[in-house]
Specification:
The chain is an alpha/beta fold. It is 38% helix and 22% strand.
């Protein structure tokens, strides 16, 4: 059982099922993000294992969860390296598909001197995930404590997973990235929605410069009981039970924002394994557990910006719980 309340409401290790992408991140560091039509000379190039599904799975595993990843890779060197990395991190990849006819997905990432980034993804094998594959692995979802999904794989596969989870009474956490209007129906199947400002505006049909609290409340009208709107170094907004609340984050020296959002989502999924039973039983500890889950996720997201790369930057259980009390004090001010 994990200490310091990261999973304090559960008597056992949380089981997280992740449905998502597995990519190789091809990262160029440059003085700035190029404008349309502009060429910028970069400083360095590196490969990192990544993909939102893989990143979030590792983030949850490092927090001590038992994690199963449903996804797909190619059979070339990238796919082999990614499978080995995930296995080494404690993620169960026994149900992950290896495609002979398609390459592993890649993400082309530019990171500027301020740690901000732009990402273009070529999905490769990720695009082959189907509702039929998800159905074949129904048992994984039915026996997990939390389902966590993103939108770098086909919507049909994510929707199939969400429906199975809801039928089994399992909470569905959707990180709606990258967002699209087609995902609005899928959003209604989620218990907890995680989005950034641009994704929130697209899904809610609003201007991205609208006050963040209004954006979060607009999404709550669509259906999810809980919304988390991430705001980078400004923390996040939680819209829960009709009320928006600002969630602070740690002040750190950011080197690279790649993977920070995935650290946030993966750690929040671990915390939600304790929140969900409290919601169902109307436990008076519900709000404290929500608060602890958000504080842990915020700490993880901030710590992930200190190191280059996605998976290399994801913090450990001990690193996260050591800093959670700092945010909890701020939450109670």
């Amino acid at each position: 059982m994990m200490s310091n309340g990261v999973n304090s409401g559960s008597a056992s290790t949380p089981r997280v099922c992740v449905v998502g992408s597995v990519n190789m991140d091809l990262v160029v560091r440059a003085p700035k993000i190029p404008a349309p039509g502009e060429t910028v000379m970069g400083r360095s190039f590196e490969n990192f294992p990544g993909g939102k599904g893989a990143n979030q799975a590792v983030a949850a595993a490092r927090l001590g969860a038992t994690v199963m990843l449903l996804g797909a890779v190619g059979s070339e060197a990238h796919g082999q390296q990614l499978a080995q990395t995930l296995h080494r991190e404690g993620v169960d990849v026994s149900r992950m598909v290896r495609r002979e006819d398609l390459p592993t997905g890649v993400a082309l990432i530019t990171v500027d001197d301020h740690g901000e980034n732009t990402i273009v993804v070529a999905p490769g094998a990720n695009a082959t995930l189907t509702a039929a594959y998800i159905e074949e692995n129904r048992d994984v979802i039915e026996t997990c404590d939390v389902l966590l999904a993103q939108l770098e794989v086909p919507l049909d596969a994510v929707a199939a997973a969400a429906k199975i989870a809801r039928e089994a009474g399992k909470p569905v956490i959707l990180n709606a990235a990258p967002a699209s209007p087609a995902a609005r129906e899928l959003v209604k199947l989620s218990d907890l929605l995680i989005v950034n400002r641009g994704e929130a505006a697209l899904l809610g049909g609003m201007d991205p410069f609208v006050e963040p609290g209004r954006l979060a409340l607009r999404l709550a009208e669509i259906g999810p009981p809980a919304i988390v709107l991430t705001l980078g170094s400004q923390g996040s907004i939680l819209a829960y039970r009709g009320r928006p609340r600002r969630i602070p984050t740690l002040s750190v020296k950011a080197v690279d924002a790649v993977g920070a959002g995935d650290a946030f989502a993966g750690v929040l999924a671990v915390g939600w394994a304790a929140v969900h039973p409290a919601i169902k039983s109307k436990d008076p500890e519900e709000f404290r557990l929500v608060e602890r889950a958000l504080a842990s996720a915020s700490v993880a997201g901030a710590l992930a910006t200190r190191t280059r790369g996605a998976i290399p930057s994801l913090p450990s259980h001990d690193e996260v719980i050591a800093r959670v009390p700092e945010l909890e004090k701020l939450l109670r001010v």
